Amino acid sequence: MVTGTIACATMLFLVGCSSNDLPTLPSSTPQASLTQNISQYKYLVGPGDSLNIFVWGNPEISGTFVVRPDGMLSTSLVDDVPASGRTPTDLAKSLEMRLAEYVRDPIVTVIVQGFVGPYSEQVRVIGEASKPKAINYRENMTLLDVMVEVGGLTEYADGNDARLIRVVDGQQRQYGLKMADLLRDGQIRANVDILPGDIIIIPEAWF
């Protein structure tokens, strides 16, 4: 009986509190892309990536390993190797240094099998896209490439009022997009370059 009373009281408390009555969390910290030079873009390893690590002449310590959610990697002989935000080549060199304690002159090759990448490098599309999702950035990606990936706009989308959010000099800046002009009217001048970390928000049209 007491348990039921407590449960009812808790439910009444939760129902009685509107979102306006609750404290507001601070805004998220802008996370700039780790890509330093877009003209020389290289894939960066991220949490969840599946890595095929091959140590030449040592198949017993080679294998497939997954980068942990904290961005660290553990292999057969070494633990807690920072992996997130590094190129596969850079990670291979780091593993060679760590493995040198156990293997003479190790030569390591890192091959990414499942591409996830750091959040800072993903392009995220939310709102009135047919398939809103996070996309792995690919070299020379444009707005048109992104929209093909998410299946275009829904019938309720206000494509010409869409916004792109990009971190520039540590600050989030917003830019207008003309998606309807691009996708429905074929105005190719409305196509723009997309950069790692961009967020695209597509609102619903007001009828």
Structural overview:
The chain is α+β, with helices and mostly antiparallel strands and 207 residues long. The protein has two domains: 40-114, wza like fold, CATH 3.30.1950.10; 119-202, Outer membrane lipoprotein wza fold like. It has helices at residues 2-16, 88-99, 143-149, 179-183, and strands at 50-55, 63-66, 72-73, 81-82, 108-114, 122-127, 133-136, 162-168, 171-177, 199-202. The protein has a five-stranded mixed beta sheet with strand order 7-6-10-8-9, with no helix packed on it. A three-stranded antiparallel beta sheet has the order 2-1-5, with helices on one face. A two-stranded antiparallel ribbon has the order 3-4. The chain starts with a helix and ends in a 5-residue tail after the last strand. Mean pLDDT is 91; it is low at 5-14.
